[in-house]
Amino acid sequence: MSKDQPASPEEQSVEEATLTSNALKAMANPLRWRIICALGNEELSVGDIMEKIGTSQSNTSQHLDLLKSKNIIKSRKDAQKVYYSISNNQLLALIANMRSVLCHTNLED
């Protein structure tokens, strides 16, 4: 199995399954999901994210820290600002697929 291929259920270790489950749980929070969607394929500062989702700096930072701890997002510091983005292209593709499948308008059928 190559590194780019996902493990089959039989090959995935308990540790890998736990990490995957924890990442999905982190994304399942409505505010964190809005942060993820706001980021999309952009790099945004905390202030930009706050403006897009309409919550306080401390609340936004708390959720960003959790998403970062699950390796869903990454950060980059530039002078006094910290910029956040989705951690890799595979996650971007997963998030795009989740949005297209689970978007409210698609659930009305």
Helical content stands at 40-55%
Distance between the termini: 38 Å
**Order of helices and strands, N to C?**
HHEHHEEH
- Total strands: the figure is 3
Which structural category do the helix and sheet elements fall into? alpha+beta
Q: Give the overall silhouette.
A: globular
Write down the CATH topology.
Arc Repressor Mutant, subunit A
CATH class: Mainly Alpha
Beta-sheet strand percentage? 5-15%
Please tell me the overall pLDDT: 86
Main sheet record: 3 strands, antiparallel
Unreliable residue runs: none
CATH architecture: Orthogonal Bundle
Going by CATH, the homologous superfamily would be Winged helix-like DNA-binding domain superfamily/Winged helix DNA-binding domain
Q: What's the arrangement of strands in the largest beta sheet?
A: 1-3-2
Instruction: Please compute the radius of gyration using only Cα atoms.
Output: 15 Å
> Number of helical runs?
5
Overall number of structural domains: 1
